[in-house]
Design brief:
single chain; 161 residues; mainly beta; 8 strands; 6% helix; globular
């Protein structure tokens, strides 16, 4: 396991890497998870905090992030149906997209390591950086440079600007 700010990590943040981001579990999840753009998707309506002023020609840069589908036991009263909102940042290295995000006022962080499959589909895995035993497959749809719809087996990890 690599430590934070390790210069030998694969990800551009220098953090602990997502283990086996294209393992069999990820590939199986990707085969059955095919997100489609929809105006009625729960990520379609703008919800971003508006603090991201990045370029509009790339997905790299600052984002607002949110996730739901599991309860975070470190947050009193949290339930799987509640959104946990925070900030995110996307960086691209070759055919890989790395999405670092936080929640609980920045106290908790996660990292997604995803491979591009065409111009709009992202396939990879998430790791909870505060509890690295938690890893789950993740599939994302780049709807635009302002919206990424993300799915894991229990719910969503979405990004908006």
């Amino acid at each position: 396991m690599k430590s934070e700010n390790n210069p030998t990590s694969r990800n551009p943040f220098g953090l602990m890497d997502v283990p086996n981001p294209t393992d069999d579990g990820v590939m199986q999840f990707a085969r059955v998870t095919v997100p489609e753009e929809s105006a009625t998707d729960e990520n379609a309506k703008p919800w971003s905090n508006g603090e991201t002023n990045d370029r509009r020609d790339t997905i790299e840069g600052q984002w607002s992030s949110r996730w739901k589908g599991a309860a975070d036991p470190t947050i009193s009263g949290d339930t799987p149906d509640q959104w946990k909102q925070g900030r995110g940042e996307a960086r691209i290295v070759g055919d890989r997209v790395y999405l670092l995000f936080d929640w609980d006022s920045g106290a908790r962080r996660g990292l997604i390591d995803a491979r591009r499959e065409g111009p709009r589909r992202l396939v990879g895995k998430y790791i909870n950086l505060n509890n690295p035993e938690i890893t789950v497959p993740w599939v994302g749809l780049v709807v635009s440079d302002q919206r990424i719809d993300g799915y894991f087996s229990q719910g969503r990890v979405d990004f908006r600007r």
